Amino acid sequence: MLVSFSDFARLKGVSAPAVTNAVKSRIKDAVVETNGKRLLDRERALALWDRNTKRNGSERVSAKARHRDRRELAADQPGEPVPVAAVVPKVSGEQLKRLIMGLPEDQIPGLDVSRERREHYNAEIARLDALAKRRELVPASDVQQEAARLAKQVRDLLLTIPSRNAARVATMQDQEQIRTLLEHEINTALRGLANA
After folding, report:
1. pLDDT tens track for 36-56
2. Secondary structure of the chain as H, E, C letters
3. Is the C or the N end of the chain the one with fewer CB within 10 Å?
């Protein structure tokens, strides 16, 4: 159903200049020219308006409009949905920019979805920064260095056992005494490591 800009403004409860401004960017795909007049495809304009208009605290949004914000726009043929963009792989900023610029217009996420994603990731970065400042989160490289240092220390302590005890073991005849001695040496080395 085609409606005029002023009818659409009354429908949305906004001024006619607000609709004219929105036609320049947010709902330009809903404009239809017939007999030299510019009209709006009502359903497409409503979907684009709800999808691409930033919400503020004083605005009253119906449950139906909120539902429209979350669904994809209908394609030109009825019943055939617009394909949803594929999951974006982990890429650098420049690669992501090229990927987004290469998407067809109908696959670029709406303004509200993009803002939600940006706010989510900004909040996640802020949370990780706070954890790092409280020293509840440490860089993986520090953990790897400490693990390598401890592994080297274990290796060195265990490799010294034979050279320290070779003469004593050579004089022992009882297998039980040899086992007890080696267990004692290994336990001593590991206890020293645990205290380090």
Report:
1. 888 988 888 888 887 877 665
2. CEECHHHHHHHHCCCHHHHHHHHHCCCHHHEEEECCEEEEEHHHHHHHHHHHCCCCCCCCCCHHHHHHHHCCCECCCCCCECCCCCCCCCCCHHHHHHHHHHCCHHHCCCHHHHHHHHHHHHHHHHHHHHHHHCCCCCCHHHHHHHHHHHHHHHHHHHHHHHHHHHHHHHHCCCHHHHHHHHHHHHHHHHHHHHHC
3. N
Separation CA 186–CA 143 (nearest Å): 25
CATH number of the domain enclosing 58: 1.10.1660
Q: Which of 82, 108, 128 is the last residue of a domain?
A: 82
- Given CA atoms 59, 65, 70, 74 in this order, what sign does their dihedral have? negative
Structural domain including 164 reads 140-195
**pTM, whole model, 2 decimals?**
0.35
